[in-house]
Write a sequence for this structure.
């Protein structure tokens, strides 16, 4: 059993809070972190306001093994993430020559306007995170990874992060669906969960195409626990007179 | 000018953090709140853990005019929102006779199993929020609205909330798109934003169908400000030699 490694995500952006834009980074990052054995344990969505960025970054970077931020590293006046990460760490924001070169290589030196050069202003002591899509880099300060908000750019930046982090024991999971109310199985779920050391079972009702039911998600770091508990749940559902179906968790339900 | 009325949302659910389920409530609630003149100012996604629920609820209910929670009010062992809201307020969780009647009317008294009756356990002093979809109610404690996590149920519950809240001045907005890098207009955006009292301008780059560009969102509570600033921005973009297009913010970008 490795220790649990936990991460937080801070989504910085008025456009998510106003409802104009649907965030796509939470779900992608959650799955990506799962794949490297890290648990996403908290997400915050906050506006483009200096003190909110500073306070939330300082709170989360001390409480979690890793902190990711998305948004606010572009060239315009409302992109204030980098300067406030610098403030959170108590360091200066300076022109980073490597970042400047990345921009110059992509856009041409003649096109390095003051607005674009803003994207090369990086907190002192940070290491850059490559942006394979649009050149302007993200950066890492200690356990904090500062990424772009545009999903395709954020996802591209993750390619330059995987080797910098280390996860814990990987969480394994299986899903079982029934077309019946979850309350019928409430006793069974508690009984099974309590009889295994690391197992947790989540119960998620759904309404889909006119029928309703529930998905039970079994999660544990121990493969033998997972398989035993899964069989036990199948049996107990069957003994109550219901059919169950193994499968992926249904997307779109909540 | 009315005062700004601000709300927070706490999404309670391991299934969102694990990536199994894509949250759909944030975006819906953001738009719904906009429509009643309330600003969604912070969102948190936290796991089904007692102390995390208690601490986050107490933090957010004191900092914001309204707090909404989604998730964790079903019949199974992992549904622990109600009991922890009671703890956050320092009140008992008791069987609510009105809630019990709602369940009995929908399911029949004979079907009120112990698991289902759990959904009628409500913090003392709360007022119920009707659930037009599946009967089990949400509830309101002071400025905190506790809602279901299933999107269709959450949305149904909002019908019983609108008359209980009061918003501030409604925020008006307009969007303008250009097919050019946002950095070209960085100076213009600052200049215009600074010359109006309540106006804020957000700049959001996009990549779409092989072309890239930026969307500028102007937001203010003053209609005359909005119209003047919008015309001014159109003129200044045109003077830089670019065409702009009025329209809705592009969904899917970030």
């Amino acid at each position: 059993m490795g220790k649990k490694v936990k991460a937080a995500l801070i989504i910085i952006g008025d456009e998510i809070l106003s409802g104009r834009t649907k965030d796509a980074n939470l779900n992608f990052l959650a799955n990506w972190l799962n794949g490297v054995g890290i648990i996403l344990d908290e997400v915050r969505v906050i506006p483009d306001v200096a003190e909110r960025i500073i306070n939330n970054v300082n709170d989360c970077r001390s409480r979690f093994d890793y902190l990711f931020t998305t948004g606010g590293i572009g060239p315009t006046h409302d992109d204030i993430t980098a300067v406030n990460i610098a403030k959170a760490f108590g360091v200066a924001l300076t022109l980073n020559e490597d970042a400047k070169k990345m921009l110059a290589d992509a856009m041409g030196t003649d096109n390095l306007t003051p607005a674009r050069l803003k994207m090369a202003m990086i907190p002192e002591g940070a290491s850059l995170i490559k942006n394979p899509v649009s050149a302007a880099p993200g950066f890492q300060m200690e356990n904090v990874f500062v990424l772009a908000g545009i999903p395709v750019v954020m996802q591209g930046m993750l390619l330059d992060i995987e080797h910098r982090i280390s996860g814990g024991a990987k969480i394994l999971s299986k899903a079982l669906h029934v077309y019946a109310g979850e309350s019928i199985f409430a006793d069974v779920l508690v009984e099974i969960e309590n009889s295994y050391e690391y197992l947790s079972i989540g119960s998620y009702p759904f309404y889909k195409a006119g029928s309703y039911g529930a998905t039970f998600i079994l999660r544990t770091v121990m493969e033998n626990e997972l398989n035993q508990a899964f069989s036990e749940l199948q049996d107990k559902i069957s003994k109550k007179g219901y059919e169950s179906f193994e499968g992926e968790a249904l997307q779109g339900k909540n």
About this structure: Residues 6-164 of chain A form a domain with the Molybdenum Cofactor Biosythetic Enzyme; Chain A fold (CATH 3.40.980.10). Residues 223-239 of chain A form the longest helix (17 residues). Chain A has nine helices and twelve strands. The CA atoms of residues 228 and 239 of chain A lie 17 Å apart.
